Input
Amino acid sequence: MKKLTILLLSFFALSRAMTQIKTVTLRIDPKYARGATASELFDEITYIPLESTKESTFGSAQRLQVSQHCFAFFDYSTKSVFIFDKMGKFNGRIGSLPMLNNTDQLAMALYNFVLNMSSEEIYVVYDVGDKKHRKRLAVFDSHGKLLQSRALSEEFDEMGISFAFLDSNRTIFSSGNYYDKNLAPDYLYVFHNFDSLAARTLPQQASDPLNKSWHNQLDQPSVSSEGAMWYRLYDKTVYYTTAAGALNSYRFILPAAITLDSTFYGDESVLKTEQGVNVYLQKHQNFISYLSSLQKTKNLIGFSFVRYNYSLPSDTYLYSLSTGTLYGNIKITPDSLCYSLPLFNASEIAGMDDGYIYLFIPSFSMFVTADANKDRPWKSNPILNAYFANAQNRKGNPVLARLKIKNTL
Output
């Protein structure tokens, strides 16, 4: 009875804590984005060549997650989750789920995978495709072997498939408003052991014009050991749930000339269908429609602006919460710290965690730069020396670059 009382009190405390949202306002004007050299922003840069075999070859890496012993990420070209160890050796991949044959649903489910940082197991929650939107849970080890597959309770029918761990027993899910706008009055829900509902938070506001949007749901672009980012289409406020269970929000204030205004948010006929929104945005392609590629570690937030339905390299940024400085990613230039090898000019941010930024640098970009630099400044680095000495790497997997952020950022 005592244990039950403590458990209930912790659930109530979590529910109260997550309703007390800490909001930070960020005034962002892209024309004031600064540049910097690699040495000005980072203390060290480590290169990890990823093993290239027929089974381990991938196209583009998304939603990178990092544990003590491995990296995991989703690749859309193969619709698989890939797992490598910290030295770059291929561990395995996940390309299928029990009782799910729909290719689009499979890709969406695997994209939303979560690497449990303590057990180093990979969790996937997915919709089986019936009219009730029943959900299943699949758990894999760090080599891609299926360990567990089971149906989830009916309480998950109203949930989406995006989630994050708060600890070994609790997970936080987004609602399934994408399926039915009348189902869930809150945006985030906490579950205990993938079983019972423990708390709910971030209620919908009656005055919110996006309640009428065709996609009134929180999506999750990134998750790490520190927390998870959440965003809605056409919303300039994004949310961050910490691993400790706190809920923060970041409100982006953008120049009026490049942001959606009342003519968009005040017209229900535009918002209620995807076609209506696309027609409007196509006529206003200079407007920033929403934020994507959201990442956070320590006091640094990474994001991209989406205009219409696309984002350019020039629309990607890093923002320091401690100094208020905005950096344009393509303005961050290589220098001696990275042996003048390509960084942001060749790759988008794949992940951020525990004070590090991770980039996948294409082998083509690595070798083009190396061929043009006969001085070989990386000759003191045995890993890069061995990488460039192997001609087969020219057509191999990208190199994973790990950038340690300076404490002053």
Observations:
- The CA atoms of residues 378 and 384 lie 6 Å apart.
